[in-house]
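Revision sheet: structure tokens.
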Amino acid sequence: MSRSMLRSAAVTLLALVTLAACSDDPASDAEGDRGEAGTLELVSAEIEAEPPGDVAEGTRYVVTVNLTPGVEWSDGTPLTAQDFLGQYDILWAQQAGLWESLTDVRATSETQLVFEASELSMNVMRQILRSNQTAASSQFGDIYTRLNQLRTSGADPAGPEVAAVLEELDAMAPTDPVAYGPFVIDPSSVTAQQMRMVKNDGGFNADKIGFDRVDVAWGQTQQTVPLILQDELDYTTDALTPSDVQAVEAKPNIELIRTPLGTGTGLWFNESIKPFDDKRFRQAVALVIDRERNAKVSLGDAGKPIEHMAGFSDTYVGDWLSEDVVAALNPYERDEAEATRLLEEAGLVKDGDTWTYDGEPLAFEITAPTDFPDFLASGKDVSAQLNEFGFQTQVRGIPAANRPDTILQGRYEAILDFSLVSAPEHPATSLDWNMAAGFFGTNNPESEGSKGLNWPWQQQAPDGTEVYIPDLLAEAVAGLDEEPQQAAVETLAQIFNDQLPVIPIFERWTTDPIAHGPRVTGWLASDHPVYENNQANDPYVAMQLLGGVLRPAEGADGSFHTSAAYAQPPNFSWNYYAGNSMYNTLTTPSYHATLPPLMWWSNAIDAWVACVAESYSVAEVG
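Predicted:
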């Protein structure tokens, strides 16, 4: 990872994503119709910044985004900067955290959007350039206009006027989906088994995409593996079990893309319960769990046991931690004798083959999502390993959809869930998830309500000084230059390694199946720089599909087949902003085929590259 992800003054090239025919296909010797591969050249989308004019009070940075002209919504109306401005006015009304950094957002022309901010970080830039797609003014224009008027007139976003508009927004029930991507969902096609996306001829890059439709099968691994084996899927993001991998790899036209996903499982303990609040207990559990065994059981070769136990992906460690810090980290290699010593120090007693606490056998449930096969397998193996050591545990299965409330409310004794997250790809993302509120309220010890993990935020740094975790996390992402962030990341990593608020187990590497025929050809070779991205953040398949690199195989029917566990009819809304929006349940590449981002982030060049926006610039005020 470069130390120059963001720069305050842009002096690089105008964005281009260059597509060219290429007759030298590295995969052409394999069986199946692989055809000629296209090329995808990733070039920075940053241009030289113009000096800012008048800006809002408190503005330090101005980010200017230029949209690709001529893109149309599927209802024939033009995609404009006003559409995106409306999205940010809604985020203001919803009191989204992004507006703690933004001081203003303006549409200065039909194709230019200007963001003003008091501070910038990779997270803020990601929300501006990547994370927030939008909905059409033809459907939500009245809401957009009224909220913009309230915001620019100084209204209180927590006030009754704003609340009334948000109530109207939530109650809206459009009868048709509208998209600005090259495809739009055909509402008449949506069934419990499948939906179809048809071509939006005016949508982004539609003229460069040879497919007429995208067929999306409903399901997760259990439903999609048979479809892969029957040549009914061209790509899926579903996690394959070791036996699935073996079956899929036997097909000569299937290639598995293997990249680090930046996600993986870990064991959390509710520290409102004793002895879970004692770090010696958590350290002992880490010493008991055979992480390599657990990774193999859960994902086979696609599970990589965590080595450094730093609170974030091992793949980031070399770029963020000094050699001295890495050498000082406890790797928690399996050691039952040391685990026994720590447990006895924490007040546990071994009675025969059973560990007891306060005279009672130490028994607890490990909650795990039943419809995440790798997570469930991981949870069952953790339970088995701990029982072999003398604990009395059992797995409590819940639907994955119940995870957010279960985590937020702390309705678990122990839970098998993510210990690594990576959007954006920065150590602080995982550290925040593991040590602070994360996305679902993972840990909030100062809350008057649910405290989640209830791991204290007042901690001691390795040098003995008292530190406050939220402050350190803020330092770890502050500013445009990553170099000053390193000290905070190192301190957080060392505290995490000592305290283990979450016990990391393994990182998932993708086993994404891509099918060379019978429908699709043109896949880039697996050593192409685009695969330095992963399926979750700025997905390599969506970039190839939207870039026009992929194309129908000779004699195929012009369709691309993928999958998603989308909301089952009729339990969804076409309201993009509703809690039960269909869009919330789509995965890549179907989501991006309908609503592409302004830009992609490329790990290969540590830069933003063009998508719906063709360029951007960043200027510092003063």
